[in-house]
Write a structure and sequence with these properties.
Layout: H1 20-50, E1 53-59, H2 66-77, E2 83-89, H3 94-100, E3 105-110, H4 119-129, E4 135-140, E5 157-163, H5 170-173, H6 175-180, E6 183-187, H7 199-209, E7 214-217, H8 226-240
Parallel strand pairs: 1-4, 1-5, 2-3, 2-4, 5-6, 6-7
Helix pairs in contact: 1-4
This protein binds guanosine-5'-diphosphate and magnesium ion.
Length: 242
């Protein structure tokens, strides 16, 4: 078998022949998978609407500060709204434990080798959680700027978190994610004096990909501008209420 592409040729050869049949088959599998996911996502969205549950899907690379942001958010808002969290990680219960320490219930989904949460898994999680009406449900997706962009979970908004230690060019490199998100949180702004991160360049790249994206710069640990994020949340939760 060809050692370069595994196409069945008896030896390594120049790749001037076509793999169109195989490509078409893979595209079809992916389309079917996403179509199935969209059906489950629509069911989740209908359930969230029926119960006025404002649902966010937090996406980012690992370590941008999603769990820290959620813990601080819960501390500030848990007396104003019922809140629940679904945590997605390949392994461990660590993040769910960090959330539970705030007194809010959290369900951990371990995806094993999986690189994203899907709508079917969220549907099952929601059944197990007895969520309150007129509440906030935060879903922390698996840390990864690629696959979670394609999987609708039934959320009201994807919120992409980008920290200033990751580089200001990420909106261009991972365009699908920044196109799919309605809100970008630029986190860890307390570290700006120590890193080479051009905020204005980052914002212009994000807007080039998604002109409608809303952007909030904040620090989850030091509290800079956290109020703007809390105000956005409060406004949206209230508008979502019955
Ligand atoms: N300096 C600074 N560190 C932060 C901030 N937010 C999170 N971190 C740190 O970033 C690391 C990863 O945070 P975590 O919440 O686990 O990220 P996650 O993987 O996206 O959930 C932890 O050491 C946090 O304390 C911030 O605003 N500023
Ligand atoms: Mg986390």
């Amino acid at each position: 078998m060809c050692g370069i592409c595994g196409c069945g040729e008896t030896e390594v050869h120049q790749h001037n022949h076509s793999h169109q049949g195989e490509t078409a088959r893979l595209v079809k599998i992916e389309e079917d998978l996403l179509a199935k996911n969209n059906t489950y996502a629509a069911q989740n969205r209908a359930y969230f609407k029926q119960h006025s549950i404002f649902t966010l899907n937090l996406v980012s690379s690992p370590g941008s500060g999603k769990t820290t942001l959620l813990v601080e958010t819960i501390k500030q808002l848990k007396d104003q709204f019922p809140i629940a969290v679904i945590e997605g990680d390949q392994q461990t219960e660590h993040d769910a434990e960090r959330i539970r320490a705030t007194g809010v219930s959290a369900l951990q989904i371990n995806t094993g080798r999986g690189c994203h949460l899907d709508a079917h898994g969220i549907g099952h999680a929601v059944k197990d959680m007895s969520l309150e009406d007129n509440s906030l449900l935060a879903i922390e997706n698996v840390g990864n700027l690629v696959c979670p962009s394609s999987f609708d979970l039934g959320e009201a908004h994807k919120v992409v978190v980008l920290s200033v230690t990751e580089g200001d060019d990420k909106p261009l490199k991972y365009a699908d994610m920044f196109y799919a998100a309605d809100l970008m949180l630029i986190n860890k702004v307390d570290l700006l004096p120590y890193v080479d991160f051009d905020i204005e360049r980052c914002i212009s790249y994000a807007k080039r990909i998604n002109p409608k994206i809303r952007i909030i710069q904040l620090s989850a640990t030091k509290g800079d501008n956290f109020i703007e994020w809390l105000d956005w949340l409060r406004k949206n939760i209230n508008e979502n209420r019955n």
